[in-house]
Structures are given as structure tokens and as C-alpha cells.
């Protein structure tokens, strides 16, 4: 059975008069998530923040169970953080890096991650090396295997799905190569979590980062870090009374589980809401989500590709729910603004942020990212409005 589109749209009231194709930016949370977040905020207003957290302890713990179930992990391998970027920074900061160590990444790495790698090269003396793309635009597995074979690679850090293109990197194969070479594998799953079924054992990653606001349809300001038990990691760069405890004057002990990456202060309502969002996605069936999102995205690429003057930019043999395109003679921001006026939400992917990737002849693109609650009729609205804007010149 597929997804009951009518039911999920009923859980998404905004679709009555809005075509939301910006799910790779921030999706529309379903009613159960909204109720969970607002309900806890109301509880805080009635009884106090600390007291509300005590009453909601079971719901908070449910977050760890939900994320672990989704990833095929254990609850003690999951940490709640404020964003995927915060999760990536915490995970990367715990990798045991020394001067001269090699770090491999891909051309399509997320700009914030790339900045962190460059900073580590400048301050810690590690060597950041970009593995080239293969013919289809994804990381070249042969080149990666050769670089791992040369030795000295401490870390492989790459994204599953880049933010500005529909390609999907072959991360399961990357994970197998990393395990064989003894390299730590840090996987940015910011765009894939919530639209694909992810199993950390199958993927072979040591660290995985995700966000709540995108395809998981959770609250903004929420994310998580998976840290494999037994991975070769050092203690977090920053600790507090939640992640460590005093054992004597001038001495402390860091927690052994993934919660060593957490901070005491966080949005309890957001954490509860993210747990509800994960349960919602898992209940739908992430393989079914992947099938529907993939089919809608391919339909959008096909229809946009039929419009004269529109160039679809997505690469890769396997592609995600992110659809990027350029309209000849019309800046991407102008297309976005026109669509916004027609109650169609998209965003602009600025390719110049991708410092290591070929430009493909454009500096920015329109990004339309579909989700399972979208419909073919909404794709047709997108195509019609793109034609309308193009006709204005």
C-alpha cells in the first residue's frame, strides 16, 4: 500500500491554499507535531519550565527511542542538538585529528561543513582533500578507494544528498570502503533523513547528522547526532553539567553515551516535537515515502524539462526530492518572487556557495523540493507559473 495522500494533507492544513515546494528548506509540520510542541509550551506556562520537563520525562525519552528505531541504532547512541550544523560540528570536533592526517570529502559538501574542514586545516594542520566526481556527478568510488589505499586517512566526511542538487551519493558503498580502511565516516544526512530509509549499520557510518525541520517535518531549531558506540572519538570540544559531571576538584568525567554531545539548556518542546515527527514518518513507512517523493520529483523534472528555456540541473543516476532548474534570461530570485506571489513556495540554491563543485554554467538555481503530501496537480501549478514568469521576459 502507498501513502494515504488525503490523510497526510488533512494533517497539513496549509495545503488548502499553499503549494509548498520548499521541503528541503523547512517543511510544513503535521498537526500532531504542532500539538505536541504547543501543548508542552502551554504546560510550561501553567506549571513552569523545569516542572513541565519533569512531567514530560517520558516524552523526552521517547525522542531517543524514536530516532534510534528510525536509524537502526540504540537510544544511547543518539543525542539531541539544535540543528544539523550543530550536530556536524560536535561530531567533527570529536574526531581524533592530528597534524598531517588526511580528511577526504566530496565536491558537493555543504558550505558550513566545508568551512569547518578548512578551519581544521588552518588550525590543526590536517590535509583536506576533495575526491573528484564520477561521470554522473556523485563521488567517484574508484578514486575514493585509491585515496584510502594511499593511507593516512583519518576521516571521510560527505553528504548523502547535497542541498543544492538532486543527486544522491552512494553512501553505503562509501561506508564499506571506510570500514575496510579503518577511517571514521561522518555522514551528513540533513536532506535524506525523513525522505529515505536510513540504517546506520547498513550505511557503515560512525557519525550521522540530521535536522528536524526538513523532510522529517519537525520543529525548527531541532536536530540530532548519531555517534556509534565504540567509535574512535575524543571527548567533545565543549562540555557542561549535562554532558559531564565533577568527580573532584579540577576533575570531571564525560558521559559515555552520545548525550555527552548535548547541552543542559535546550527546547524541551522542540525535542518532544521532533520525537513525534520521527514517529509520524516511521509510521508512514520511509520506503513508501522514498517512492512517492522520488516519483513526484521525476514528474517535476520531466514537466519542467518540457518548458522551452528551462534547464533542469540535477545530476546523478539516482536522485532525491530536490529539483533544481534555471530559467533562461530570468534570475532565480525573480522566479522565486513570482512563485511566492502565486502562493508557491520554492527557494534559491546559490551554487557559488559550493566552493569545490563545477559551476555548470550557473551561479544560482531555483530549488523546488517535493514531499509526500504534494501532488501532481501542485507540480502543474509550478510549471504553469514558471511559464507565466518566463513569458514576461
UniProtKB/TrEMBL annotation:
InterPro entries: Aminotrans_V_dom, Aminotrans_V_PyrdxlP_BS, PyrdxlP-dep_Trfase, PyrdxlP-dep_Trfase_major, PyrdxlP-dep_Trfase_small. Its cofactor is pyridoxal 5'-phosphate. Residues 20-382 form the Aminotransferase class V domain. SUPFAM superfamilies: PLP-dependent transferases. It comes from the Bacteria. One of its GO terms (molecular function) is transaminase activity. Pfam families: Aminotran_5. Keywords: Aminotransferase, Pyridoxal phosphate, Transferase. PANTHER family: BLR4730 PROTEIN, CYSTEINE DESULFURASE. Belongs to the class-V pyridoxal-phosphate-dependent aminotransferase family. This is Aminotransferase class V-fold PLP-dependent enzyme. It comes from Nocardiopsis tropica.
Amino acid at each position: 500500500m502507498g501513502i494515504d495522500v488525503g490523510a497526510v494533507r488533512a494533517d497539513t492544513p496549509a495545503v488548502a491554499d499553499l503549494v509548498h515546494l520548499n521541503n528541503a528548506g523547512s517543511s510544513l509540520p503535521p498537526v500532531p507535531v504542532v500539538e505536541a510542541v504547543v501543548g508542552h509550551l502551554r504546560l510550561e506556562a501553567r506549571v513552569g519550565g523545569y516542572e513541565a520537563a519533569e512531567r514530560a520525562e517520558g516524552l523526552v525519552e521517547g525522542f531517543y527511542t524514536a530516532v534510534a528505531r528510525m536509524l537502526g541504532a540504540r537510544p544511547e547512541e543518539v543525542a539531541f542538538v539544535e540543528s544539523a550544523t550543530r550536530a556536524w560540528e560536535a561530531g567533527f570536533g570529536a574526531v581524533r585529528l592530528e597534524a598531517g592526517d588526511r580528511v577526504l570529502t566530496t565536491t558537493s559538501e555543504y558550505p558550513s561543513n566545508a568551512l569547518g574542514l578548512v578551519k581544521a586545516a588552518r588550525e590543526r594542520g590536517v590535509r583536506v582533500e576533495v575526491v573528484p566526481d564520477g561521470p554522473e556527478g556523485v563521488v567517484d568510488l574508484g578514486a575514493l578507494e585509491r585515496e584510502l589505499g594511499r593511507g593516512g586517512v583519518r576521516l571521510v566526511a560527505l553528504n548523502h544528498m547535497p542541498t543544492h542538487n538532486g543527486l544522491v551519493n552512494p553512501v553505503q558503498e562509501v561506508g564499506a570502503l571506510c570500514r575496510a580502511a579503518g577511517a571514521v565516516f561522518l555522514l551528513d544526512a540533513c536532506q535524506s533523513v525523513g525522505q529515505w530509509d536510513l540504517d546506520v549499520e547498513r550505511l557503515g557510518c560512525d557519525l550521522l547528522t540530521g535536522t528536524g525541520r526538513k523532510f522529517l517535518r519537525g520543529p525548527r531549531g531541532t536536530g540530532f547526532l548519531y555517534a556509534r558506540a565504540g567509535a574512535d572519538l575524543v571527548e567533545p570540544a565543549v562540555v557542561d553539567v549535562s554532558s559531564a559531571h565533577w568527580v573532584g576538584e579540577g576533575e570531571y568525567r564525560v558521559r559515555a553515551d552520545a548525550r555527552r554531545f548535548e547541552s543542559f539548556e535546550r527546547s524541551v518542546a522542540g525535542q518532544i516535537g521532533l520525537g513525534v515527527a520521527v514517529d509520524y514518518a516511521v509510521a508512514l513507512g520511509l520506503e513508501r515515502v522514498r517512492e512517492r517523493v522520488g516519483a513526484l520529483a521525476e514528474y517535476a523534472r520531466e514537466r519542467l524539462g518540457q518548458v522551452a528555456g528551462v534547464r533542469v540541473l540535477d545530476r546523478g543516476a539516482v536522485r532525491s526530492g530536490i529539483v533544481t532548474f534555471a530559467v533562461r534570461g530570468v534570475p532565480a530570485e525573480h522566479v522565486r518572487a513570482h512563485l511566492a506571489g502565486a502562493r508557491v513556495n520554492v527557494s534559491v540554491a546559490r551554487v557559488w556557495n559550493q566552493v569545490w563543485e563545477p559551476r555548470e554554467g550557473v551561479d544560482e538555481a531555483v530549488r523546488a523540493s517535493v514531499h509526500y503530501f504534494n501532488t501532481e496537480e501542485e507540480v502543474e501549478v509550478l510549471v504553469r507559473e514558471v511559464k507565466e514568469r518566463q513569458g514576461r521576459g
